[in-house]
Amino acid sequence: MPALLPDALRQQAVPDPAAAATAVPAQWSFHVNPLLWSAMTLAAMCALSELLAAYLAEIVNHRCRASDAIGDKSFRRRPFSRRRVARLAAYGLLVAGPVLHSCLSVLDTAYPIGTRFRRTRLFLATLLLTPLLDALHLISLSLALDGARTPRDVYATLCLNAMPVAMATLPWFPSAVVLGASLGLHADVWTGVCAVVAASFCVAGSVLHKTHVS
Predict the structure, then answer these.
(1) What would the mean pLDDT of 7-26 be, rounded to a whole number?
(2) How far is 109 from 102, CA to CA, in rounded Å?
(3) Are the C-beta atoms of residues 45 and 100 closer than 8 Å to each other?
(4) Nearest Cα residue to 145 out of 213, 80, 86, 95
(5) Per-residue confidence (pLDDT) for residue 193, from 0 to 100
(6) Residue of 138, 156, 22 lying closest to 91 (CA atoms)
(7) How far apart, in whole angstroms, are the C-alpha atoms of residue 81 and residue 117?
(8) What's the Cα-to-Cα distance from 194 to each of 121, 127, 138, rounded to whole Å?
(9) Of 46, 92, 41, residue with least CA distance to 206
(10) Which residues 6+ apart lie within 8 Å of 168 measured at CB?
(11) How far apart are CA 130 and CA 175, in angstroms?
């Protein structure tokens, strides 16, 4: 019976072994499991931003040390903490990625394409949502990185960093969501765009902090 099929149909009926071997499993596909891809994207961004910030800060500090008359002028080949990078990656995978993906998906579902005043509603909703995301971000990082063990430690972290983080987040996060919606991008793509922008701010802030501390 297969011999009676046309060549085009016979090729479709018999899968190519090479293509089958290199095919991506369905559960790893972006369209099938966007939550997994969002979490992996945030994990990679968090880890890479810490590595990049560490090396940029070391370059700046190395130039400062080279101009000193005394002191160690060597360049540290591993200026980062492996434990901190691993914790940041776990934070992006388990907290930042799923939370950001869920929030943006809810906004996309609440205000679908064709909704009246969609951009304005998205902007206002994201504007109200941003402080909550910032607070969750600071609490999670204080527990994961700073070793906070008591509510007082977490509260001190919030008091110290809440305003700088809000000033860095509020100007761009709602605008990025509205821009993505205007371009017709899906909420899963918003997550990646926001992760890239947030990682850039994290790199700049980390470099300033590391060079100031050093």
Answers:
(1) 51
(2) 10
(3) no
(4) 86
(5) 84
(6) 138
(7) 47
(8) 19, 14, 17
(9) 46
(10) 201, 205
(11) 11
10 three-class SS = helix
Q: At what angle do helices 34-66 and 187-213 cross, to 10 degrees?
A: 20
Report the distance separating Cα 159 and Cα 94, nearest Å: 25
CB atoms within 10 A of CB 42: 29
Average pLDDT for 151-180 = 87
CB 62 within 8 A of CB 75: yes
pLDDT per residue over 116-130, tens digit each? 889 999 999 999 999
* pLDDT above 60 for 5: no
Separation of alpha carbons 108 and 4, rounded Å = 50
d(CA 110, CA 102): 12
Does the pTM of the predicted model rise above 0.70? yes
Cβ-Cβ contacts under 8 Å for 68 (sequence gap 6 or more): none
The contacts of residue 104 (CB under 8 Å, 6+ apart) are: 177, 187, 188, 190, 191, 194
> Percent of the chain scored above 90 by pLDDT?
21
AA letter at 186 = H
Q: Is the pLDDT of residue 18 over 60?
A: no
Residue 76: CB atoms within 10 A of its CB come to 12
Other C-beta atoms lying within 10 Å of the C-beta of residue 25: 8
Q: How far apart are CA 64 and CA 115, in angstroms?
A: 55
